[in-house]
Amino acid sequence: NGKSAKTVNGADVKISTHDGVKLNGTSTVTKTDIECTNGVIHIIDTVILPA
What we know:
The protein is mainly β. The chain has strands spanning 3-6, 12-16, 22-23, 27-36, 39-44. A five-stranded antiparallel sheet has the order 1-2-3-4-5, with no helix packed on it. The chain is globular and about 30 Å long. The protein starts with a strand and ends in a 7-residue tail after the last strand.
């Protein structure tokens, strides 16, 4: 809880693991660890827009 990560465009995303994984307190991670050729994808239920 209380961690953050940088997006591709340099914005900070707050990560919470209380009651599931949430980004910025609103987006819930719905599917994890989808392997692709250049990394791993995690699916969320909302679009995160820059502030």
